[in-house]
Design a protein that fits this description.
The chain is an alpha+beta fold and 181 residues long. The chain has a single domain, classed as Peptide deformylase (Peptide Deformylase, Alpha-Beta Complex), CATH 3.90.45. It contains three helices and seven strands. The strands form two sheets. The chain has a five-stranded antiparallel beta sheet with strand order 1-2-3-6-7, with helices on both faces. A two-stranded antiparallel ribbon has the order 4-5. The longest helix is centred in the first third of the chain and has 16 residues. The chain is globular and about 45 Å long. One of its GO terms (molecular function) is peptide deformylase activity. Keywords: Hydrolase, Iron, Metal-binding, Protein biosynthesis. This is Peptide deformylase.
């Protein structure tokens, strides 16, 4: 099991758009396994590579008993919206109702470079959008209205984990996947 530390709010890697995956090699497969192990250990329903300090466009999910991953996702969102509770492993203890598209079609690749189309609604759609946001340097609190965001930032300042120093990270997508050094 290769559980990695989860980066917390304030770590710059969480606000940096991730690089597309270009090499579908053994290192990518190790990254996907690390993401699965870390997500399931947390436990969470999704985890994006930047959350473990890796600036690559990869995420894993575990929704309704379905375990999967997506590399280099491109989303097509429905116009119909849903509002529901959302949290984040990088913002422990925070949960706010967040607006998202109700359905999503995500195109990308699996860890072997084979094309994948992932269709989801409700919780799976929320998860896919949330994790793809991570790959774009966006956190779910960025999608809250002004009052909710102010409340979230206040809660973050008061959280016991707030202000924890971030481990140093290598941002190159090609060196040890940005693990702490």
């Amino acid at each position: 099991m290769a559980v990695q530390p989860i980066r917390l709010f304030g770590d710059p890697v969480l606000r940096t758009p991730a690089e597309p995956v270009t090499d579908f090699d053994k290192e990518l497969r190790v990254l996907v396994k690390d993401l699965f192990d870390t997500m399931l250990d947390a436990p969470g329903v999704g985890l994006a590579a930047p959350q473990i300090g890796v600036s690559l466009r990869v995420f894993t999910y575990y929704v309704d008993g379905e375990l999967g991953h997506l590399v280099n996702p491109d989303l097509d969102l429905s116009s119909e919206e849903q509002e529901g509770p959302e949290g984040c492993l990088s913002l422990p203890g925070l949960q706010f109702d967040t607006k998202r598209a109700r359905r999503v079609v995500a195109k990308g690749f699996n860890m072997h470079g084979e094309p994948v189309v992932l269709e989801g609604s409700d919780l799976l759609a929320r998860c896919i959008q949330h994790e793809t946001d991570h790959l774009d340097g966006i956190l779910f609190i960025d999608r809250l209205d002004r009052e909710q965001r102010k409340q979230a930032l206040r809660m973050i300042r008061e959280a016991e984990w707030s202000g924890e120093p971030a481990p140093q990270v290598r941002f190159s997508p090609h060196d040890t996947f940005g693990k702490a050094i």
